[in-house]
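User: Can you help me understand a structure? I only have the sequence.
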Amino acid sequence: MQQFSTIYNQFLKQIPRSQFQTCVDHYNGDYRVRTFNCWSQLTTMMYAQVAGKVSLRALELSLQNHAQHFYHLGLKKVSRSTVADANQNRDWHIYEELFTTVFLRCQDVAPKHKFRFKNKLQAFDASTIKLCLKTFPWAKFRQAKGAIKLHARLDHSGQLPNFINVTTGKTHEIKVARTLTIEPDSISVFDRAMIDYAWLFHIDESDAYFVTRAKDNMSYALLPKPEHHLPKLSKRARQKGIIKDQIIRIVGNKADKIPIELRLVTYRDPETGEIYEYLTNIFHLSALTIAQIYKARWEIELFFKWIKQHLKIKTFLGTSENAVMTQIWIAMITYLLLAYIKYKNKFHGSLLTLQRLICEHVFTRMHLEQLLFPELRGAGGRHPLPPRNLAQLCLTL
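Assistant: Let's start by predicting it. Here is the structure, written out as tokens:
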């Protein structure tokens, strides 16, 4: 009978161990640590994410019940005080740096976005996570409320977050957006709450593009002889909801902040009848494509909804800022690992289905590919994989 390591062990093997150690050494994470090092902390905290543990007591009890499995992962007896101390004292920047490393691996196997153009498409937004101010006094939001804000930029190729920033709830999205690196030829899409004309002009000066909703009080003038020429408004575009396609220039006291021509696309949603105005500096794509680009911004809302429902980023195992930041970054790494397994193995199920499979079989001894594709299992799941998968199997083991 062919023996495999546990599903969770194979899940952890997706992390490049040498690069993780580089992150640890960079911040002296294992300085004067005897047993529970940073890898043990990552293993334990990621298990809390995968298994859905919402408290240190529940995590400790689960570790005790599965001690024989964690022994093979290099973990000895782990108490909740040990985990709490590690989350309190280990620099969370270790996991922030690891997040970037794992993202680059995911990017290599992620599918492209659904649009025909080749420009990188990215959506930026933020979501607030409410906290108890008495328990988390460092996360002051209002006089009697606490909160942190999770800022994210989602790459539509694979729906992967390529930028994460966690601030207190008071921080406005535009303040974080101004710190973003804008790649030439990329398309950024965001809500009108983030409109800052100076920042929009900065995107344009970076040879990049943006799509956003126009504010209701925007002052502008139509240009009778614009420098740019727009694609012809087709009959199909009108049938799909495009009403107007115009070239404008911002006027008034904010005109100096964005002294360039802009495009204003007016769109009526065929389902609701609502009318939307989209502001962009893209002139070479059709008006219908502009509307579809903004509609795709909804993916980042679904991303926030997914991680809040299926990862542990609303209830925390520690109350210090370092503990909260550590848990959030490890949760984001968990999300990337799930996406990496999905895309690398060409798993056609949803990310939620994949997460549930791993959760239900976290300590099952089975090859990961057999878990994803039940047809590869033999009777009782004990037969080896078909010959076409043996080479891949040897590399994994």
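Now, to help you interpret it: Residues 113-302 form a domain with the Transposase Inhibitor Protein From Tn5; Chain A, domain 1 fold (CATH 3.90.350.10). The longest strand covers residues 121-131. Let me know which part you'd like to focus on.
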